[in-house]
């Protein structure tokens, strides 16, 4: 792996970690960055595998809390309910993700203009929801009602369209269902663990025949950079959205999506 490839892998890993848990679409940013940098990976496996770095970052930050939940589950109904709540929210992604995997990876992932448009539209939605979201009724991300979790799970599936944002979809859904800004972000964290781990495992399985052994080094570089940057974001995000809300991310999406669409239209 030459220095140029190493630099690109590190940059993409940094982008993944910085954007995975904020509502701006890490996949959209990665695919657009890869397009403009001329970076290609077999089956888009690099883009999926380096998400494991973000998963590990979240596990690192929340290890104590998650360990306590699973330790208490045999005797604590609230802990069991939280685990079931996350699994219920995860279920729609399993079914729809498996059924639509090939279409998503071979069609939607290959359309940069769609990604740019969805970034802009998602930014507009985020700004709109920031204004009209109902008064929060749920302040604890570990105690969402099961029906609410299931609806959030279906809304998360919109993020299978690159540029929508998994965290953005779940956060918007949670806000509209009465979650506080902090609880919406934290539930998105918890839901990302089975969702991203499942996507990683299934994508590796589906692309096992086209995996490039020579790409292991660049994947390792990207994964490490994603881990480090994601740790910083996870530690910072809850406090930020509690103070400033989600409007800054909406404006970011609109600006990045508009710039990308213009650049693509000019064949850059």
Automatic annotation (TrEMBL):
The keyword Ion transport does not apply. Its main location: membrane. It is an enzyme of class 3 (hydrolase). The chain crosses the membrane at residues 49-70, 82-100, 112-129, 150-175, 187-205, 217-238, 250-267. It is found in: Cell membrane. It catalyses: di-trans,octa-cis-undecaprenyl diphosphate + H2O = di-trans,octa-cis-undecaprenyl phosphate + phosphate + H(+). InterPro entries: UppP. It is a multi-pass membrane protein. Belongs to the UppP family. Bacitracin is thought to be involved in the inhibition of peptidoglycan synthesis by sequestering undecaprenyl diphosphate, thereby reducing the pool of lipid carrier available. This is Undecaprenyl-diphosphatase. It comes from Loktanella atrilutea.
């Amino acid at each position: 792996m030459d220095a140029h490839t190493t630099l690109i892998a590190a940059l993409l890993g940094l982008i993944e970690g910085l954007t995975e848990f904020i509502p701006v679409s890490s996949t959209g940013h990665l695919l657009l960055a890869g397009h403009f940098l001329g970076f290609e990976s077999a089956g888009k496996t690099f883009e999926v595998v380096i998400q494991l770095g973000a998963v590990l970052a979240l596990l690192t930050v929340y290890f104590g809390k998650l360990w306590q939940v699973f330790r208490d589950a045999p005797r604590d109904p609230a802990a069991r309910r939280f685990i079931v709540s996350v699994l219920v929210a995860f279920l729609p992604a399993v079914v729809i993700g498996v059924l639509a995997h090939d279409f998503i990876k071979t069609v939607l992932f290959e359309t940069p203009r769609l990604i740019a448009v969805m970034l802009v539209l998602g930014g507009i939605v985020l700004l709109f929801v920031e204004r009209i979201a109902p008064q929060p009724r749920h302040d604890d991300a570990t105690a969402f009602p099961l029906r609410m979790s299931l609806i959030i799970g279906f809304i998360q599936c919109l993020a299978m369209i690159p540029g929508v944002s998994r965290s953005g979809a779940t956060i918007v859904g949670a806000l509209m269902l009465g979650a506080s800004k902090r609880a919406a972000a934290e539930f998105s964290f918890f839901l990302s663990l089975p969702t991203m781990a499942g996507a990683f495992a299934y994508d590796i399985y589906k692309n096992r025949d086209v995996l490039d052994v020579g790409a292991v080094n660049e994947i390792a570089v990207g994964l490490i950079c994603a881990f480090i940057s994601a740790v910083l974001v996870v530690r910072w995000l809850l406090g930020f959205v509690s103070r400033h809300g989600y409007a800054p991310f909406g404006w970011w999406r609109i600006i990045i999506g508009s710039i990308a669409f213009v650049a693509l239209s000019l064949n850059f």
